[in-house]
């Protein structure tokens, strides 16, 4: 038992402590108000779609029976959506890394290949690229499945955009790091593998997370081929069949939204843990 | 005695700028040589030419029997440069520790990756060297948790763990807060006492006077004076040397 516990003299708080506390209070209050506003906005949206009569206002009536009958089927598309996104981000990462290394090459053909790829892919719409794989390639005798007609252009497209992230990551590693590696006797390849790339990847992970999140949404474009049963395809299919597009698209939108909220949360956790690390 | 470092007729151009003008210098085994001079005199460039961080424009570099002529190309030249780098340890002004590796990982990276040394053996050697620079207690920390002086001591241990024949120091205390300079200089004195051949580019006149066997003074890409520290600091021959010493004496750096 601590007999001194009650005898600690109460020191008056300093000006700085008081200011700090006031600042903390203000920040907490702001967070609370933002939270309340979110809840209010959600409540208003729920009210608008509640189908009730309130003070003479007739709100929108959704078909509950349709929703109950089809929500499970639409939800099944989440698996495809995630599958497409994961496979595409995997290939995109490889392409981006190769394009970034090519961009740093002093060998003209390699440099040219890298800039050509990035320029061509970034200069044309993703939507067109998907159709190119699905509709144009078969004319040349190459018939990729609908799934790969989606995955390949997504990979190429995101690879081109992400190559900039890797390039920035690689150039963020200082000259001194390369010199230290060279002075130890490392070959250029060892310097890249052991010193530059690990640091560049750490730099690139947060923006790659952002790209993965936007890819889960761009994967909806793959539905245009009409054969990949991901979220948007399923929603438009059941919506059109019985003219319940409103309900179907709202369901799909909610699923996308929840997915991005979860992924954003995971990404910000990752970002803080990387920031805490050894940089 | 055969010199361990021999630089012959070394020229270095940066574009049209003639930075090193026909430098020839020899360093004997176990000798501690300080290289002083105003900034822009070419002293860092000379140091960096010795392990080919800068490719010399003309001339021959020889380290412990490995002779490399400038302007070489191809695999044979790369192999010679590699051999020279294995014989030289380098300590940089900005430390250049690898931030994604712990202190011990930094120190064993060279032996394991470059020399293919067995990891357990490298750890043993690395821990011994970390201990001798007084940094063993931080072996599992990452560099961002260390002070500048501690980083530089780790960088010295990293270079030593490659078991070089010659240590090159490029202004090792210039990036440090004044109160941290002493700990690094003490470690360097210890390395010198253990018999390491050292070439040190420095502004620390006290260190040069106390520790160096020889002091080289550089100005405008040439070595203008080469003598023992006592003579140099008491009877500088060249007026530029005198000006340099006076400037430090009055404390305006």
Could you walk me through the main structural features you see in this protein, from its secondary elements to its overall organization?
Chain A has 279 residues and is mainly alpha-helical. Chain A is 75% helix and 1% strand. A two-stranded antiparallel ribbon of chain A has the order 1-2. In chain A, helix 3 (77-103) packs across helix 6 (146-171) and helix 4 packs across helix 6 (146-171). The radius of gyration of chain A is 27 Å and the shape is flat. The two termini of chain A are 44 Å apart. The relative contact order of chain A is 0.11. The mean pLDDT of chain A is 89. By secondary structure, chain B is α/β, with parallel strands linked by helices. Chain B is built from nine helices and ten strands. In chain B, a hairpin with a 2-residue loop joins strand 1 and strand 2 (17-27). Chain B is globular, with a radius of gyration of 18 Å. The chains are: A mainly alpha (279), B alpha/beta (253). Chain A binds chain B through residues 174, 176-177, 179-187, 190, 194-195, 198-199, 202, 277-279, and chain B through 51, 53, 82, 85-86, 88-90, 92, 94, 96-102, 109-110, 113-115, 142-144, 158-159, 162.
Please identify the oligomeric state.
heterodimer
Q: Helix segment count of chain B? A: 9
Give the overall shape of chain B. Answer: globular
Bulk shape of chain A? flat
* Tally of strands of chain B: 10
Strand arrangement across the biggest beta sheet of chain B: 6-7-8-3-9-10
- Overall pLDDT score of chain B: 93
Average pLDDT confidence of chain A is 89
Helix content of chain B: 40-55%
* Largest interface, C-beta within 8 A: A-B, 21 and 28 residues
Secondary structural class of chain A? mainly alpha
How do the SSEs of chain A run, as a string of H and E? HEEHHHHHHHHH
Largest sheet: number of strands, sense, barrel closure of chain B = 6 strands, mixed
Largest sheet of chain A: 2 strands, antiparallel
